[in-house]
Every structure is written in C-alpha cells, then in structure tokens.
Design goal:
There is one protein chain. With 153 residues, the chain is mostly helical. 57% of the residues lie in helices and 0% in strands.
C-alpha cells in the first residue's frame, strides 16, 4: 500500500493545484474553461473562461484574491488552498503567534474589527468560540464551580 505522500502529487504552483482539483472534482471528465466559468457564476462568483484556461496553461501565476475565491467556489474548497505556499505559511505563523500570546495572557480578548461584508469567516468564529469556552472552563475551575461556572449542587 502506498503512503499518503506517494499518492499526493506536488502542488506548488497554481497550475498544479488547479489541475489536481480538476482531476479530483471532475474525475475522468474533460472540462472546458466555459463550463468552469459557468459553474463559478452559478455559485455566486465571477471568472472568465479564458482566464481559467490561462491558469491551466500556466500563463497566470499570481492572480488576485478574488480569482482565488472564484476558484474555491468552483471547486467547492477553501480558496486559501490556491494561495502561494509562502502566504499560507505566513497565515499559519500569525495564527501560532496569536495562540502563544493568548496562552501567555498578552491577549485577553478578541474583537472583530475591519470585517468585510461577509463578517467573520466560519473558522475564525469557531476558533473564537473555542477560546471563550476554554476561558470559561478555566474560570469555573479556579472558582471551584461546576461546568461553565455553574455552582455544583
């Protein structure tokens, strides 16, 4: 049996990632740029068929965030999958720094500022809720209370 590393192709470039997603999302099918552009439009995004074809041809290497979001819509995946590895690494490092500061008490609360029209992304909202639950658990344990700060009966 092959290991997961042997089965997963190298996905460094945008072209490799899109080719991989085409194979995984539409196995055994040859999809046109027009078909994919129509699919993106049906799902509320915008992507021209020629631009999609240029991505598959490797002519587009650094598209805008809006294009990455359109790709995510079309394939039904988180758009950040298509970001350059260095950008994803930066996001992960920032997240880890946030966690470290939260654990040491340098950050004691979270406020949503500068949100776009979509509000908080679901992952961030879930993370913020988990931080609140953790804080409640630590607070109730310190007070000798029951679950979520309720006094024990």
């Amino acid at each position: 049996m092959d290991s997961a590393e042997e089965r997963t192709p190298e996905l460094r470039t945008l072209q490799q990632k899109v080719e991989y997603m085409v194979e995984e999302t539409f196995p055994g099918q040859k999809i046109s740029g027009r078909f994919f552009a129509d699919l993106v439009r049906e799902r509320g995004g915008s992507l021209s068929h020629s631009y999609f074809s240029n991505i598959l041809a490797g002519k587009v290497t650094q598209p805008s965030e809006d294009i990455l979001k359109a790709l995510g819509l079309g394939f039904g995946v988180d758009w950040r999958f298509f970001k350059e590895e260095s950008e994803v690494v930066d996001d992960v490092v920032a997240g880890l720094q946030f966690l470290a500061m939260r654990r040491t008490g340098e950050i004691s609360g979270v406020a949503g500022r500068g949100l776009d029209e979509d509000g908080l992304p679901p992952e961030l909202l879930q993370f913020a809720l988990s931080l609140l639950e953790d804080a409640k658990g630590r607070h109730s344990a310190a007070d000798g209370g029951g679950v979520h700060g309720e006094p024990e009966q």
